[in-house]
Amino acid sequence: MKIRQHIPNLLSLSNATSGAIGAYFAAHGAFTTAMICMGVGLVADFFDGFMARKLNAFSPLGKDLDSLADAISFGVAPAMMMTVALQQLGFFFPWLAFLIVPASVYRLAKFNHDERQSTSFIGLPTPANALFWASLAYWITTHLTLIEGLPRMIAYKVYALWPVLIIFMSWLLISEVPMFSLKGGRPTWQKDKGLFIVLGVAVVSIPLMGLGAFVPTIGAYILCNLVGHLRNKK
Q1: Domain ranges within the chain, ordered by starting residue
Q2: Distance CA 203, CA 57 (A)
Q3: Are 166 and 100 in contact (CB under 8 A)?
Q4: Structural contact between residues 38 and 22, judged by C-beta atoms closer than 8 angstroms
Q5: Angle, to 10 degrees, between the axis of helix 126-142 and the axis of helix 31-55?
Q6: Helix or strand (DSSP H, E) at 122
Q7: Phi and psi torsions of 183, nearest 5°
Q8: Which of 106, 135, 138, 154 is the most exposed place for a label (fewest CB within 10 A)?
Q9: Which class in CATH covers the domain with range 3-175?
Q10: What is the pTM of this model?
Q11: Angle at 25 between CA 128 and CA 12, to 5 degrees
Q12: Using one digit for the tens of pLDDT, what is the confidence trace for 71-110?
C-alpha cells in the first residue's frame, strides 16, 4: 500500500490523540483547552473521511480506527468534562456522566453496520452529543458562582434533572429517531426548515454564550428532529 493510502488512518490517529489530550485537560479542569482539543478532533474526523474518498483509501482497518478514535474524542473526553463539572457543582453522583461512554461506543458500532445512514442519521450523531456535553460542562464551570447563588430548593430540583438528561441523551444516541445531516446538498427552506432554525439559533447564541453556544444549538437540532419524527409517525 502506498504511503498516501495511510493518510486517512493518520488523521484518525490524530483524532484519537487529541481526544486523549482533551480528556487529560478536562480532568484538570482546563475546559477551554479540552474543547480546543475536541475541535481538533472534529477537524481530523472530517478530513479522514474526506481524504479516504479523495484517495480511494477505504479499508476495514480505517473504518475501525475512525470509530475507535471517535470513542475517545466524542465519548471519553466529554464524559470526563461533564463528570468534573458535576463534581464542582457538588452533585452526588458525578460519575453518572460516564454513561455517555457506553452509549457513544454502541452508537459508533451501530453506525458502522447501518447502511441507512449514508445521507442522514438514525439517532443522535456522536460528535453532536459530545459538543452538547462539552459545551454544557464549560458553561457550568464558567458560571459556578451564579449557580451556587441559587436558592437551595431550586438547586436540588436542578440536580434531579441531571440523571434524566444524561439518560435521555444516551437514549437518543442509540435510538431510531431520524436526524438530518449536512450531506443532503444545497439546503432549501421548503425541505430544510430545521437546518435553518438550528443555524439561526447558533448565530444568536455564539455572541451571547461563546463556547457554551453548542447547548442551545444542539438542543434546537434535537428538538427539530424530534418534532419531525413525531409528525411523521402521526
Answers
A1: 3-175
A2: 36
A3: yes
A4: yes
A5: 160
A6: strand 121-122
A7: -95, 0
A8: 154
A9: mainly alpha
A10: 0.90
A11: 50
A12: 999 999 999 999 999 998 888 888 999 999 999 999 999 8
